[in-house]
Amino acid sequence: MILLQSPSRYLLQILSNRIQSLEKGVELDCQWVEFDDIRYHIQGSVKNPNVLLLSVSLPIPPPETVLFGGLPLGALEAIKAAYSVVAQILDPPRDGFNLTLKLNLAKLPPDEEHKHALLTKIASVREVVMGAPLREVLRQLVTRTVSDLGKPVALVHRPNESFFLVPQVDKVTVIFPMRFSDSIDTVLATSFLQEFVEARRTAGLNNAPPCLWSPSPPQELKEAFTEALSANAGFVSFVIFSRHVEGRKLDRTVWNLSTFHAYVNYHVKCSECFMHTRMRRQVESLIQALDCAKPDSEKAKRNSPSRSFKRMSVKDGNNSLGSRSWK
C-alpha cells in the first residue's frame, strides 16, 4: 500500500527553484493538472522576481455541495491562518480559477528549515483549501461542540462527486459513494474494498477507524439527494472518534480521507497493471514451451537446405524425348 503525499511535488520544486534563481530574474509561467482534476497556474515576472501569482482550480462541485465564493466552507479562514505571512488572497481570482494567491517570497523566514517548512505548506494548498470543512467538523468532534447532529454534509472531492459527513456527539461517520467509469475497474475496486474492510479486523489495526462496506446506501444517507447515491462499487464508511484526530493526527486524517477515492483508484490501476504483466509473462512461457515441444523431424526439415531447379530450353526438351524413344 502507498499513501499519496499532501504537498504537490511539482509546485514545491518550482518554488524551490525560484528561490535559488531570484538573482537571475527568470520569467515563469507554468500550468499543470493533478489527480481529481485540480488545476494549478503559477506566474512570475522578471521585473519583480519575489512576487508569484498562484491560482488553483477545484473540481466541479455537484448540486448537493455548498460553496462560499467558489471555495469550501472555512477555506478562506484556513488560507489566512496558514499563509498570512507570505500570501495575499486576490479578489476576484483569475478567470477559470477558484483561488488566486499573491506570494511574496521576500517575506520567507531566513532560517532554511523554517523556510522549507513554509514552502511545503504552500505546496499543500490543495489540502488546506479542500480539507477545510472536514478539518472544522473533526475539530468540533474533539471539543464536543458538533452542530447539526445526524444531518449529512456533502463535500466535493472529485468532479461532480462528493462524499458525506454525518456528525454526532462522540463520532463522525464519513461515507464515500465509490464510482468508476470502467467496468473492469468497478470489479477490481469492489474486491479491493471488501478486502480492505477485512484487513481492518486484523489484530494490528485495532486502533484504526472502523471501516464498513455495503452495496447499498447506509441509513445515514436517507436524507441525501438520490442522484448523489449512485455508486457502482458500493459505499465505504469510516467511523472517526476523537482519538483519531488528536494533536498531529488531525492533518493526516483529513488528508487520508480527502484523497481516499484517489488512493483506491491508484491501487486498482496498479493491480490491473500487475495482472497484465503476469499475463504477458505467462504467454511468453507458453510460447517457449511450444517451441521446445516441436518434434526433431520438423526441426530438421526446417534446417535442411532448399532444393533448386534448372529451367530447360525447348532444344533440351526435344533431345531428352529423343533419347527416351531410342531406349
Write up what this structure looks like.
- It is a single chain.
- Helices cover 41% and strands 18% of the residues.
- It is of the alpha+beta class and 327 residues long.
- The protein has a five-stranded antiparallel beta sheet with strand order 1-2-3-5-4, covered by helices on one side. The protein has a five-stranded antiparallel beta sheet with strand order 6-7-8-10-9.
Q: Nearest-angstrom radius of gyration?
A: 32 Å
Physical arrangement of strands within the biggest beta sheet: 1-2-3-5-4
Low-confidence stretches: none
Number of strands: 10
Q: What share of residues are in beta strands?
A: 15-25%
Major beta sheet summary: 5 strands, antiparallel
What's the average pLDDT?
86
- Structural class comes to alpha+beta
Q: Tell me the series of helices and strands, N- to C-terminal.
A: HEEEHEEHHHEEEHEEHHHH
**Bulk shape:** globular
**Cα distance, first to last residue?**
90 Å
Summarize the amount of helix as a percent range.
Answer: 40-55%
Number of helices: 10
Quick recap:
This protein is α+β, with helices and mostly antiparallel strands.
Fold topology:
Elements: H1 9-20, E1 28-34, E2 38-44, E3 51-57, H2 75-83, E4 87-89, E5 99-104, H3 112-123, H4 125-130, H5 132-143, E6 153-158, E7 161-167, E8 172-177, H6 183-200, E9 211-214, E10 235-240, H7 249-258, H8 260-292, H9 296-303, H10 314-326
Antiparallel strand pairs: 1-2, 2-3, 3-5, 4-5, 6-7, 7-8, 8-10, 9-10
Region (Disordered): 295-327
Protein name: Arp2/3 complex 34 kDa subunit
Subunit structure: Component of the Arp2/3 complex.
